Amino acid sequence: xxxxxxxxxxxxxxxxxxxxxxxxxxxxxxxxxxxxxxxxxxxxxxxxxxxxxxxxxxxxxxxxxxxxxxxxxxxxxxxxxxxxxxxxxxxxxxxxxxxxxxxxxxxxxxxxxxxxxxxxxxxxxxxxxxxxxxxxxxxxxxxxxxxxxxxxxxxxxxxxxxxxxxxxxxxxxxxxxxxxxxxxxxxxxxxxxxxxxxxxxxxxxxxxxxxxx
Length: 213
What we know:
Elements: H1 2-19, H2 25-56, H3 61-97, H4 102-117, H5 122-146, H6 157-174, H7 181-192, H8 201-205
Protein name: PXMP4 protein
Pfam family, one: Tim17
Protein backbone atom coordinates (compact mmCIF):
# COMPACT_ATOMS: atom_id res chain seq x y z
CA UNK A 1 0.00 0.00 0.00
CA UNK A 2 2.82 2.39 0.97
CA UNK A 3 4.68 1.52 -2.23
CA UNK A 4 1.60 2.27 -4.28
CA UNK A 5 1.11 5.63 -2.56
CA UNK A 6 4.76 6.46 -3.10
CA UNK A 7 4.52 5.62 -6.81
CA UNK A 8 1.44 7.81 -7.16
CA UNK A 9 3.18 10.72 -5.41
CA UNK A 10 6.19 10.34 -7.67
CA UNK A 11 3.95 10.29 -10.74
CA UNK A 12 2.13 13.37 -9.52
CA UNK A 13 5.40 15.23 -8.97
CA UNK A 14 6.61 14.26 -12.44
CA UNK A 15 3.35 15.47 -14.00
CA UNK A 16 3.52 18.78 -12.14
CA UNK A 17 7.16 19.22 -13.19
CA UNK A 18 6.18 18.61 -16.82
CA UNK A 19 3.42 21.21 -16.59
CA UNK A 20 5.95 23.80 -15.46
CA UNK A 21 8.26 23.31 -18.46
CA UNK A 22 8.06 26.32 -20.72
CA UNK A 23 8.94 24.36 -23.85
CA UNK A 24 5.70 22.37 -23.64
CA UNK A 25 3.47 25.33 -22.78
CA UNK A 26 1.90 25.75 -26.24
CA UNK A 27 1.02 22.05 -26.58
CA UNK A 28 -0.32 21.86 -23.03
CA UNK A 29 -2.39 25.01 -23.61
CA UNK A 30 -4.04 23.29 -26.58
CA UNK A 31 -4.92 20.28 -24.42
CA UNK A 32 -6.32 22.44 -21.63
CA UNK A 33 -8.24 24.44 -24.23
CA UNK A 34 -9.88 21.20 -25.37
CA UNK A 35 -10.79 20.44 -21.75
CA UNK A 36 -12.19 23.91 -21.09
CA UNK A 37 -14.17 23.87 -24.33
CA UNK A 38 -15.81 20.58 -23.42
CA UNK A 39 -16.68 21.69 -19.88
CA UNK A 40 -17.94 25.12 -20.91
CA UNK A 41 -20.04 23.68 -23.73
CA UNK A 42 -21.70 21.25 -21.33
CA UNK A 43 -22.34 23.96 -18.74
CA UNK A 44 -23.93 26.26 -21.32
CA UNK A 45 -25.99 23.70 -23.24
CA UNK A 46 -27.29 21.40 -20.48
CA UNK A 47 -29.49 23.95 -18.64
CA UNK A 48 -30.67 25.54 -21.90
CA UNK A 49 -31.59 22.17 -23.40
CA UNK A 50 -33.28 21.12 -20.17
CA UNK A 51 -35.54 24.19 -20.08
CA UNK A 52 -36.34 24.28 -23.81
CA UNK A 53 -37.02 20.53 -24.00
CA UNK A 54 -39.40 20.39 -21.05
CA UNK A 55 -41.15 23.62 -22.04
CA UNK A 56 -41.68 23.05 -25.73
CA UNK A 57 -40.99 19.46 -26.77
CA UNK A 58 -43.43 16.59 -26.57
CA UNK A 59 -42.56 12.94 -26.01
CA UNK A 60 -41.75 10.59 -23.18
CA UNK A 61 -39.38 11.43 -20.34
CA UNK A 62 -36.79 9.08 -21.83
CA UNK A 63 -37.00 10.81 -25.22
CA UNK A 64 -36.63 14.21 -23.59
CA UNK A 65 -33.63 13.16 -21.53
CA UNK A 66 -32.03 11.62 -24.63
CA UNK A 67 -32.57 14.87 -26.54
CA UNK A 68 -30.97 16.89 -23.71
CA UNK A 69 -27.98 14.53 -23.58
CA UNK A 70 -27.49 14.66 -27.36
CA UNK A 71 -27.66 18.46 -27.48
CA UNK A 72 -25.27 18.80 -24.54
CA UNK A 73 -22.79 16.34 -26.06
CA UNK A 74 -22.89 18.04 -29.48
CA UNK A 75 -22.27 21.51 -28.02
CA UNK A 76 -19.55 20.29 -25.68
CA UNK A 77 -17.79 18.27 -28.39
CA UNK A 78 -17.90 21.05 -31.00
CA UNK A 79 -16.60 23.70 -28.64
CA UNK A 80 -13.81 21.39 -27.46
CA UNK A 81 -12.79 20.60 -31.05
CA UNK A 82 -12.90 24.26 -32.01
CA UNK A 83 -10.73 25.47 -29.12
CA UNK A 84 -8.27 22.63 -29.79
CA UNK A 85 -8.09 23.51 -33.50
CA UNK A 86 -7.89 27.26 -32.94
CA UNK A 87 -5.17 27.16 -30.30
CA UNK A 88 -3.21 24.54 -32.25
CA UNK A 89 -3.24 26.60 -35.45
CA UNK A 90 -2.43 29.76 -33.51
CA UNK A 91 0.61 28.10 -31.94
CA UNK A 92 1.74 26.68 -35.30
CA UNK A 93 1.54 30.06 -37.05
CA UNK A 94 3.35 31.81 -34.23
CA UNK A 95 6.11 29.21 -34.31
CA UNK A 96 6.48 29.45 -38.09
CA UNK A 97 6.66 33.25 -38.17
CA UNK A 98 8.48 33.68 -34.89
CA UNK A 99 5.83 35.99 -33.44
CA UNK A 100 2.09 36.37 -33.03
CA UNK A 101 0.18 38.84 -35.23
CA UNK A 102 -3.56 39.69 -35.31
CA UNK A 103 -4.17 37.90 -38.62
CA UNK A 104 -3.16 34.60 -37.01
CA UNK A 105 -6.25 34.71 -34.79
CA UNK A 106 -8.56 35.46 -37.70
CA UNK A 107 -7.15 32.72 -39.94
CA UNK A 108 -7.05 30.07 -37.20
CA UNK A 109 -10.63 30.82 -36.16
CA UNK A 110 -11.84 30.82 -39.79
CA UNK A 111 -10.36 27.37 -40.36
CA UNK A 112 -11.71 26.09 -37.04
CA UNK A 113 -15.15 27.55 -37.77
CA UNK A 114 -15.24 25.92 -41.20
CA UNK A 115 -14.13 22.51 -39.94
CA UNK A 116 -16.09 22.34 -36.68
CA UNK A 117 -19.14 24.57 -37.12
CA UNK A 118 -19.59 24.32 -40.89
CA UNK A 119 -22.38 21.75 -40.65
CA UNK A 120 -25.74 23.56 -40.78
CA UNK A 121 -27.59 21.99 -37.85
CA UNK A 122 -29.68 23.48 -34.99
CA UNK A 123 -26.82 23.51 -32.45
CA UNK A 124 -24.29 25.16 -34.76
CA UNK A 125 -26.90 27.56 -36.10
CA UNK A 126 -27.77 28.77 -32.61
CA UNK A 127 -24.12 29.24 -31.68
CA UNK A 128 -23.39 31.22 -34.87
CA UNK A 129 -26.41 33.48 -34.36
CA UNK A 130 -25.38 34.06 -30.74
CA UNK A 131 -21.92 35.13 -31.91
CA UNK A 132 -23.23 37.19 -34.83
CA UNK A 133 -25.26 39.51 -32.61
CA UNK A 134 -22.24 40.16 -30.41
CA UNK A 135 -19.97 40.66 -33.41
CA UNK A 136 -22.27 43.38 -34.76
CA UNK A 137 -22.22 45.20 -31.42
CA UNK A 138 -18.45 44.75 -31.14
CA UNK A 139 -17.75 46.01 -34.65
CA UNK A 140 -19.99 49.03 -34.07
CA UNK A 141 -18.07 49.95 -30.92
CA UNK A 142 -14.73 49.38 -32.66
CA UNK A 143 -15.79 51.60 -35.57
CA UNK A 144 -16.60 54.40 -33.13
CA UNK A 145 -13.32 53.94 -31.26
CA UNK A 146 -11.37 54.15 -34.52
CA UNK A 147 -13.34 57.17 -35.71
CA UNK A 148 -14.87 55.44 -38.74
CA UNK A 149 -18.35 56.44 -37.59
CA UNK A 150 -19.20 59.39 -35.33
CA UNK A 151 -20.02 58.94 -31.66
CA UNK A 152 -23.82 59.24 -31.35
CA UNK A 153 -25.11 62.16 -29.33
CA UNK A 154 -27.78 59.96 -27.77
CA UNK A 155 -27.73 56.31 -26.75
CA UNK A 156 -28.76 54.37 -29.90
CA UNK A 157 -29.83 51.29 -27.94
CA UNK A 158 -33.57 52.20 -27.75
CA UNK A 159 -33.66 52.48 -31.55
CA UNK A 160 -31.80 49.17 -31.94
CA UNK A 161 -34.24 47.48 -29.54
CA UNK A 162 -37.21 48.86 -31.46
CA UNK A 163 -35.87 47.72 -34.84
CA UNK A 164 -34.90 44.26 -33.58
CA UNK A 165 -38.30 43.57 -32.01
CA UNK A 166 -40.18 45.10 -34.92
CA UNK A 167 -38.28 42.96 -37.42
CA UNK A 168 -38.49 39.68 -35.51
CA UNK A 169 -42.25 39.96 -34.91
CA UNK A 170 -42.83 40.87 -38.54
CA UNK A 171 -40.85 37.81 -39.59
CA UNK A 172 -42.75 35.63 -37.11
CA UNK A 173 -46.15 36.81 -38.33
CA UNK A 174 -45.49 36.74 -42.08
CA UNK A 175 -42.30 34.76 -42.80
CA UNK A 176 -42.10 32.35 -39.89
CA UNK A 177 -40.16 29.70 -41.75
CA UNK A 178 -37.12 32.00 -41.85
CA UNK A 179 -36.72 31.88 -38.06
CA UNK A 180 -34.93 29.20 -36.08
CA UNK A 181 -37.29 26.45 -34.78
CA UNK A 182 -36.58 27.18 -31.10
CA UNK A 183 -37.41 30.86 -31.64
CA UNK A 184 -40.59 29.87 -33.47
CA UNK A 185 -41.59 27.68 -30.51
CA UNK A 186 -40.94 30.46 -28.01
CA UNK A 187 -42.92 33.00 -30.00
CA UNK A 188 -45.78 30.62 -30.63
CA UNK A 189 -46.04 30.10 -26.87
CA UNK A 190 -45.97 33.83 -26.18
CA UNK A 191 -48.02 35.32 -28.98
CA UNK A 192 -50.33 32.61 -30.32
CA UNK A 193 -51.06 30.23 -27.45
CA UNK A 194 -52.04 33.26 -25.37
CA UNK A 195 -54.96 33.83 -27.77
CA UNK A 196 -56.59 30.46 -26.98
CA UNK A 197 -58.37 29.24 -23.82
CA UNK A 198 -61.51 27.39 -22.82
CA UNK A 199 -61.87 27.93 -19.10
CA UNK A 200 -59.89 29.02 -16.05
CA UNK A 201 -57.68 25.91 -16.16
CA UNK A 202 -56.03 26.76 -19.48
CA UNK A 203 -56.32 30.50 -18.91
CA UNK A 204 -54.20 30.72 -15.73
CA UNK A 205 -52.90 27.28 -14.77
CA UNK A 206 -52.03 25.50 -18.02
CA UNK A 207 -51.09 26.76 -21.43
CA UNK A 208 -53.18 24.12 -23.23
CA UNK A 209 -55.80 21.64 -22.08
CA UNK A 210 -54.78 18.03 -22.37
CA UNK A 211 -58.30 16.58 -22.02
CA UNK A 212 -60.74 16.06 -24.88
CA UNK A 213 -63.43 18.51 -23.71
